Amino acid sequence: MGVVSPTMLYSALDQSRATPGRNSLTTEAMHTLDAGFDKYVDKISPGRKPVLDINLEPGQPGLKGAYDSLSDPNKYASSGTKKANGRYGININPHADRAYFAHELGHVAAQQTDVGHLISAARSNPKVGRALMLAAVLGSTGTAALTPGDEDLATSVGLAYASQLPTILDEIQGTRHGLGIMDTAGMRANLGQRGKLASNLLNYLGAPLLLGVTANAAGNLVDEDVPYMPS
């Protein structure tokens, strides 16, 4: 599971809530957002009308639900790539805020565009992910080791973010298109819903920062013994 940040815990508790809230995904809201999704996709990619398989996974109370959400991030709020039957799968907790459902719809909408499909494919390709992660770790550590002093942190963090670029871009797309779907459906996201989606995005932005700082620290432990050669 790794390190759990406050934003990760908040998102996990919110997505796995066991009782309905004011903006929960009611049947009516689901149909409205689904109709908005069709209109939105037709606007950004005319002629494409993806079919959805929606799986409702009711949440668990309290920390148990948060643990479930953290240990299996796909359980309460996730969407997949196109399946063999031509449909896209979405898992969602109907008690959670409908903004999360819109976000998952946003991921599917993004895949109907050429750029969005490319980003999603890069994210879902394990070989690409491993290669980018390895490059980030080696690059961050190597840069820190070969650069005397501690002035190389920004470079190390930048390399770490580059390793997670497909994931970060895919999440940004999900949020951007999800908000567009809510607008199209006449359910414009309020400030609280935008804050929840922003908090969820921070979870993906925080991991590369931790990776970059850690790799940088490891590299700087090495560069203590690297003599400085003046030019």
Q: Tags for this entry?
A:
three-stranded mixed β-sheet; disordered C terminus; single chain; globular; 231 residues; mainly alpha
Summarize the structure.
By secondary structure, this protein is mainly alpha-helical.
What does this structure look like?
The protein is mainly α and 231 residues long. The chain has one domain. Helix content is 64%, strand content 8%. It has a three-stranded mixed sheet with strand order 1-3-2. A hairpin with a 4-residue loop joins strand 2 and strand 3. Helix 6 crosses helix 9. The protein is globular, with a radius of gyration of 20 Å. The relative contact order is 0.16.
Topology:
Elements: H1 6-15, H2 27-44, E1 51-56, H3 62-71, E2 77-82, E3 87-92, H4 98-110, H5 114-124, H6 126-146, H7 153-163, H8 165-184, H9 191-223
Helix pairs in contact: 1-3, 1-9, 2-4, 2-8, 4-8, 5-8, 6-7, 6-9, 7-9, 8-9
Distance between the termini: 46 Å
Report the β-strand fraction as a percent range.
5-15%
Characterize the largest beta sheet: strand count, sense, and whether it forms a barrel: 3 strands, mixed
Q: Write down the secondary-structure element order.
A: HHEHEEHHHHHH
Report the helical percentage.
55-70%
